[in-house]
Amino acid sequence: MFTPCPTERSRIIADRVEAFVRDVVIPYERDARLGAHGPSEDLVHELRAKARAAGVLTPHILADGSHLNQLETAAVLKRSGLSPLGPVAVNTMAPDEGNMFLLGKVGTPAQKQRFLEPLVRGEARSAFFMTEPAEEGGAGSDPSMLQTTAVLDGDTWVVNGRKMFITGAEGAAVGIVMARTGSLDKVQATMFLVDLPHPAIRIERVLDTIDSSMPGGHALIAIDKLRVPQDQVLGEVNEGLRYAQVRLSPARLSHCMRWFGATARAHEIAAGYATTRKAFGKLLIDHEGVGFMLADNLIDLQQAALMIDWCAGVLDGGSLGTAESSMAKVAVSDALFRVADRCVQILGGLGVSRDTVVEQVFREVRAFRIYDGPTEVHKWSLAKKLKRELLAGTGH
């Protein structure tokens, strides 16, 4: 079900991560510290301590600080996703994985030491403050609608605004805040690094959402007169929208990797059930309706794995891969949702209960079709790109 690892080092790391998730993490899936807003901080610390002892904490970042390439990362993150708790335990979970990637690309040496290193060590969590309340006309899939502002006052920036669906804000120690800067007639944004918790950043509430795998859940945030010194600007002033794409293109793909592992596990459970459960005098798998669903699962999983690896190769080739990551996000999220849906159907009543992890995988993958850009927005973006290319080719 997993495509071959591209290098020997990625095979060794991926095998160790898979063994850890299966042997150590999966037994925690019924832990009482799992709540509607994700695993508790106590559970996160316990799991990461075990991952650290097993040598699989933050496995995509090597001891010398270098990063596995995207194709190697795919091999590792797929295995980490075999349990919804796996990425949390081994520190490959969103938003930390994407924030670590961005800080590694854009941060200054001092910023990396202060903000990145605790994340890599698994000692802290982070949050990415970009999405805003829709009812206030704020930014969601369209970052040009950014309402949060940052104004330079002497040698500090003053940030004001509200943010929505901020994953992991509760309990995070590091924040990356996106705010509108520059002239009023031009959409420009800047990213700011902040220590959390901060008195100027207030959690109004943690939303009740369909998913429950990410520590801290998803929060509604008020930012009131947040002062940020110049040395905590991440990258260059007014380059925040460009940096968002630097982060989001691989982050979308990382979601695909992690949820591939989860749906592969759901398929294992459904296939195991279908080969032991009997109905109408024969095994479920011997009924065409069930057997064909399992066959369709294999096809969707294989196609998803190939799409993930193809996009990872594009990113490794030096392209930002915005279009490619959009294609992968659409194709993989839709395919994995079909797999999860079939697994629920095969399990019947068991599939809608919480006696197996399949019910949670179904919920998580349904949310994935919206997070990091809904399917329809990515298709629209691809259609615009196609139009530009076709019109350029005709000279119009």
Structure in words:
The protein is α+β, with helices and mostly antiparallel strands and 396 residues long. It folds into three domains: 8-93, Acyl-CoA dehydrogenase/oxidase, N-terminal domain (Butyryl-Coa Dehydrogenase, subunit A, domain 1, Orthogonal Bundle), CATH 1.10.540; 126-237, Butyryl-CoA Dehydrogenase, subunit A, domain 2; 241-394, Butyryl-CoA Dehydrogenase, subunit A, domain 3. The protein contains eleven helices and twelve strands. It has helices at residues 8-25, 41-54, 70-80, 86-90, 96-106, 109-120, 240-274, 288-316, 322-347, 358-368, 375-394; strands spanning 34-35, 38-39, 126-129, 149-153, 156-167, 174-181, 188-195, 201-207, 218-229, 233-234, 278-279, 282-283. The strands form four sheets. The chain has a four-stranded mixed sheet, covered by helices on one side. Helix 5 (96-106) packs antiparallel against helix 6 and helix 9 runs antiparallel to helix 11. The longest helix has 35 residues, at 240-274. Residues 238-386 form the Acyl-CoA dehydrogenase/oxidase C-terminal domain. Residues 7-123 form the Acyl-CoA dehydrogenase/oxidase N-terminal domain.
